[in-house]
Amino acid sequence: xNSDGMDILLAEDSxxxxxxxxxxxxxxxxxxNIFVARDGEEALDFIFCRGAFAQRxxxxxxxxxxxxxxxxxxxxxxxxxxVKSDPRTKVIPVVIMTSSKEERxxxxxxxxxxxxxxxxxxxxxxxxxxxxxxxxxxxVINQPPIVESFQHLAGPAHD
Amino acid sequence: MNDRCDPRLVQRCRALASASAVFAVLVGxxxxxxWKLHIATLDTWVAAPIKIVPNAAxxxxxxxxxxxxxxxxxxxxxxxxxxxARIRKLAAKTAAVIVCLMGLLSLAEHVCGCDLxxxxxxxxxxxAEAIPGVQPGLMAVIAAxxxxxxxxxxxxxxxxxxRGHWPAxxxxxxxxxxxxxxxxxxxxxxxxxxxxxxxxxxxxxxVLACGLVCSRPTWAIGGLLTSQxxxxxxxxxxxxxxxxxxxxxxxxxxxxxxxxxxxxWVEASLxxxxxxxxxVAFLTWIAFIxxxxxxxxxxxxxxxxxxxxxxxxEVAERTSAQAALKESLATSEAALKELADQKFALxxxxxxxxxxxxxxxxxxxxxxxxxxxxxxxxxxxxxxxILNSGHHPKEFFQQMYHTIANGKVWRGEIKNRAKDGSIxxxxxxxxxxxxxxxxxxxxxxxxxxxTERKLAEAEIRQLNDELEQxxxxxxTQLEAxxxxxxxxSYSVSHDLRAPLRHIGGFSQLLVEEFGATLAPxxxxxxDRIQAxxxxxxxxxxxxxxxxxxxxxxxxxxxTKLNELVAEVVAMLQPESxxxxxxxxxxxLPAVECDPVLARQVFQNLLxxxxxxxRPRAQAVIKVSCREEDGxxxxxxxxxxxxxxxxxxxxxxxxxxxxHRAEDFEGTGIGLATVxxxxxxxxxxxxxxxxxxxxxxxxxxxxxxxxxxxxxxxxTAGGRL
Lengths: 159, 720
Fold this sequence. Notes:
The structure holds two protein chains of two kinds.
Chain A: E1 8-11, H1 15-27, E2 34-37, H2 40-47, E3 64-67, H3 76-85, E4 94-98, H4 103-112, E5 116-119, H5 124-141, H6 148-151
Parallel strand pairs in A: 1-2, 1-3, 3-4, 4-5
Helix pairs in contact in A: 1-5, 2-3, 3-4
Chain B: H1 7-37, H2 41-44, H3 54-69, H4 85-112, H5 141-155, H6 167-188, H7 199-215, H8 220-226, H9 230-259, H10 265-349, E1 351-356, E2 361-364, H11 366-372, H12 376-379, H13 394-405, E3 410-417, E4 423-434, E5 440-449, H14 451-514, H15 520-551, E6 557-560, H16 561-572, E7 580-585, E8 590-593, H17 595-612, E9 618-628, E10 631-638, H18 670-680, E11 685-689, E12 695-699
Parallel strand pairs in B: 7-9
Antiparallel strand pairs in B: 1-2, 1-5, 3-4, 4-5, 6-8, 9-10, 10-12, 11-12
Helix pairs in contact in B: 1-3, 1-7, 3-4, 3-5, 3-7, 4-5, 5-6, 5-7, 6-7, 9-10, 14-15, 15-18, 16-17, 17-18
């Protein structure tokens, strides 16, 4: 599976949430290439180009990771931790999108290097507005890092 | 009398007595020898016609022997020639009796003129040598009287009358007078007659009389002779001189008278001067002796006075010493009584025992016996260990003995075992009594029964342990419940919201994408679904909020409530858009509270006030503070629709609402949250209201006066 050149990695276990998010992103024409990981392990495999995604390259990281905290196998916090502690992936913007408004989750996420923390609104209009704003900001407004300039930081052991 | 005698004089007297006895025997023996050998000088001594007759000489021997046998000596009662004193005395008395008889018989011969044949059986007396008118060999009358007197004196030598007289001395005195008379007679009338006696006899009578007196030197006249008193000394000194003077004068006068010679005036004058001079000298001598005696007396008196004074001062000293002693005795007695009283008091309260340094019991009081159940006899002499319960380790007692053996007081609680095996506890103080060497010689233990206290303590400890265990159990349960609640609220926040979002989302997509094809009824239902979803979303949020308040740790800090209220009012501004609302906010104090939670309280109350005044054209919402019981009470009053006081109990319950949802939206959680926050602060919340007349909510935040800010004074300030 060639998943290089993906704009967004959406890590979300709920099919409903996936559908609603994809619906919104597509309607707003914010991303063409969205990869959906249904658990933490798949998300990590995707980001770290291993397992089923071994043919992927670090040279084409996703432009944005939308990460739910409550994920099967490896939870969202662990995924965030691994992404942000590896020099090859730490520059990838990670936005936490979760139903939780727990303070400890919020603090822990920022502590681990999350770029943004969003609580999914229950109201669908607000939800749609939120997703739209995020996509617009991170994919259009925000200037992404030049990936290559960080690649030399990657240790040879990781290949 | 004896103690006044000069022992040297006594000795001399005794020697004199012995000498007189020997002298008498000697004179007697020589007299007899004169008769037998016809040597007249031995019987007359001088050229005189009168001879001592043989039986008189024999009587002198007997008298000398009798006196010798009855003499006193240092070796009195000790055997000498005859080893028995009784035999000696018997012989002496027999001799004395014979002499008496001889005297009596001679007197009888003189009186009746007969011859009894007693005068010549010792030696033949020729008639030529007989005294005219008297038969040959018969002794003179005076000699017979003297023999009678001296014999009787020697017979009665040691006899004293009841009035203290000594007859032997009187008899001796009489004999001496007889001897002197005899001597005068010899001088004045040297011719022999029946009255005059021979010179040896007269001299010997005198000597024997003196010897007899001297033989008892500590009695009567003898005592006077040997006494150290002035009178006795005078007697001893003066009497021989007086006798000599009198003898000389008598001799001279008699001689002059007898010779009938005529004195010249010179001779007469010389004699007178001589006599006068001798007398004056004698008197001077006496005066000198008496004077010396007076001087000695004065000296003696002075000494006596000195001694008396010394004795008096000694007596005074002793008296004062005695008084001091009495006083000290009284003090000691008082101290002893106090000590006894204190001991009594101690015995009333405490269990008292004393032991020696080995721990052997030497004393116990009644309380000790009562608590230990031993008799006093069963305890004394026993070692204190018999009460050991075995509860305390060896080290406990080692430490105790170490302390008291070093002279220090030990205090502690001891578990003892009574005679029946029952246990009792005592609070003991053991005091060592230290000897002069600083080492303890006994220990006094004073104890108090603390068995009940110990039991109560044990009970309390057990109860405490149980309580602690229960608290621990409950804490564990609570922790588990809390944990569960956290998990629940996390789950609610995360899992409950997701399906709501999905329902809302998909129903909206349905409307948006297929709205045109839906029947109007279906569309209405979809709208209802969405409204329900939204409402449920709010409910979930508020519930979470309430749960979070419960778990929120209270962080008090000084909070300016006016600033806080102003922020809340500003936040609520959108809700009052287009309405007439008057905010009347008094000066509020700064108090110690959790600002986040306090803000929530005001937010909920003011939000409610704003909501329930909606029907009013002019809403008035007042926030003020007053002081009650030393703590600030905050009030939020509105002029809204109010409520019926009979539902006041439901006001603060979760999900409890007094109004229909159609009239006033709400979840019924806001006031429950307020109550929870206020309770968390240790405060109280209550409400007053009346339908259509508005409502007032009061609350406190558990802060006392001391926690209030100084700005408190302005609480009653005016409206804003």
